[in-house]
Amino acid sequence: MSFDFKNLRPDNDSNSKDYEFTQAVIKGLSEERKRLPSWLIFDDRGSEIFEEIVGLENYHPAVCEFEIFYTHKQTLADIISDEALQIIDLGSGDARKTTVLLDQLVKNKLQIHYIPIDISAGAVRNLVTSLESKFGNTSLAVTGIASDYFQGLEAVLRKQFKRNFVFFLGSTIGNQDYPAAGKFLRRLSDSLNKGDYVMIGFDLMKNPKLLYRAYNDPGGVFQKFNLHLLDRINQQLGANFVKSNFVQEGHYSERSHAVESYIYSTKEQTVRIDALNREFHFGLWEGMQTEHSYKYTMPEIEALAQNNGFEIAEHLFDSKQFFVDSIWKVKG
User: Fold this and answer.
1) What span, in angstroms and rounded, lies between the C-alpha atoms of 115 and 164?
2) What digits encode the pLDDT tens for the residues 131-172?
């Protein structure tokens, strides 16, 4: 079967992204409590470091979701064999979890079109090459798309009327607060066809000590990931951040119901950003928020589905019920 790659990012995308990047940095560093959005971290190198996080022993969102895929792969295969001809994987990364299911579908001799969509062109190219090496002589077809989520969905859905099964895994939904998640899900349901499925990974509320261990690994991969943000600002905007002058920590906030990651300045310092012709002061141990990962209860998850154009088909849990992959169907 075919293994293709398409880059849908427009020629002027770099200019618009540079502007968006610059505005996010100005806004975030100018606030009284400095904060920068986590999407700034995700160039190709940032995506590579995040894949290291996914492989960490104590990072339970990945560990639990792997367990769900291994335990329930036949359940998923049964749904797909009855209903779905295309699997669309939003924010696919290296698709380690999805590959478990693809292997099962190939063993079941199903003809499936797998469409990974990711903003990182390098990640998508590498994934298509990897899947061709593994599944090149099988019934699986793959079309990798480098784009944002909805640009990729529009390109896929406007050309066909097949049943779709959309994956949004890894607790990526947790990068948005509850109202923003609702807006995203409403837009997703409006983009899909009646009867299409989505499967969304939610990290559930749990002991804050478990959350602390998950987001503060002893090897410092989370710190490397967060401090890569400083590399990006240096490269993009000519800043003079010195990474060794900052440390990272994540902790659960009862107020926001999220694990919030901060970069802390280990000294009184001033950072210059040439492209902005501005300087920004950091006090000793001043924190700058770089990430948040919202945690969910089951009533919140079910309300998100019902209020945004979906009906719940099934919940798939890991053995500890730390995580759920919730399967929804688009309402008619």
Assistant:
1) 10
2) 999 999 998 999 999 999 999 999 888 666 678 999 999 999
Query: Which residue has tokens 């769900």?
Result: 68
Question: Percent helix, strand, coil in the chain (nearest 5)?
Answer: 45, 25, 30
Token pair of 226, please? 């967060």
Question: What tokens appear for 39 in the block?
Answer: 């999407």
Buried b (16+ CB within 10 A) or exposed e, 217-231: beeebbbbbbbbbbb
Alpha-carbon span 121 to 89, nearest angstrom:
14
Minimal CA–CA distance to 61: which of 326, 325, 323, 327?
323
Residue carrying structure tokens 């710190």:
223
Q: Where are the domains of the chain?
A: 57-207+296-330
Superfamily of domain 57-207+296-330 in CATH is Vaccinia Virus protein VP39 (3.40.50.150)
Q: Can you give the pTM of this predicted structure?
A: 0.91
| Token representation of residue 88 | 């669309």
